[in-house]
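Appendix B. One record, verbatim.
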Amino acid sequence: MDVPSPRRSLFLHAPIRRRPRAVLERLLGMVDADMPPDGPDGPVAVLERRMAGLLGKETALFFPSGTMAQQVALRVHAERSGRRGFAAHPYCHLDQWEKQGYAAVHGLWFHRTGDPGELMTAQDLKAIGEPLATVLWELPQRDLGGLLPEWDDLRDQVALARAGGASAHLDGARLWEAQTYYRRPLEEIAGLFDTVYVSLYKSLQGSRGAVLAGDASTIAAAGVWRTRLGGAITDAWPLALGGLAGLDTIPPQMPAFRDHAIAIAAAINAGGLARTVPDPPQTPMFHVHLPAPREAVERAGATLLAERGVQLYGRVRSVLDPRACAFEITVGENAMDFTPDEVAGLIRELLDLVW
């Protein structure tokens, strides 16, 4: 059966916002017809310089994917230290979603650090007991509803890692969301870390791509591995333009996105049928926990989409209780079209369809 296309969507990366025509129309408004496709004045080079400046790093390098960028960063840190292990929260993206490429391709091993349901702590890092090449922090922790460690706790964790001889790497795929909570310049946040990865399509809503930033020597070594892995692609300028367009339009809206996320979560929690994690949200993202099984919610969501043309989520997550499930809301331009009461009402409709 054909799945109907949504007319409206709470899902940040809904197809309605990622159709080629929609993406191209967003880019056309900022394209400089005289900009060369490559070279020092081309979109890729301009993007790299701009990202390095924003993050307070010596230099930056474009990658076609965040998967490649982060694995390369860990590889370079491992080779320099002579160590093969890295630590991160158990829900680390490299382990959850990348088929353990860090091990299969790069011969690294992963210390799952801390309780899966809680943020990683300094005590968790102390308990590892093995010298590490790198410690990786994901800010915010997506699989915990966008939770962030408090600033002083984060600083203490990074200092502890460095005292043990490990490099500090930031999975900053959603760094602009994290900034709304820390309320510090990107340069100050990124300054805690030796290397920083940012996505061009998550926060910034480009079509694809990533940037890795750090000191010149580290990024030069990363460039060698980018070539070895096939990432030094020609004609990457459309991806870079998407990132540049996002930098111009999305970050100024992030505080409003966070405020709207807090208001939506309050309306959901006030209804008493569902609850959000965290409550209140720390960033423009959070999880909605529902008292219904995952498959039943998926069926109800499909019905809601077919009858109303509204997409509530991208994916429904199972939780430890088989009688419950959860989905993610990330507030961007997509969700600003929905009032908090409307979202709470749609969730009531969803659960009515289940029951």
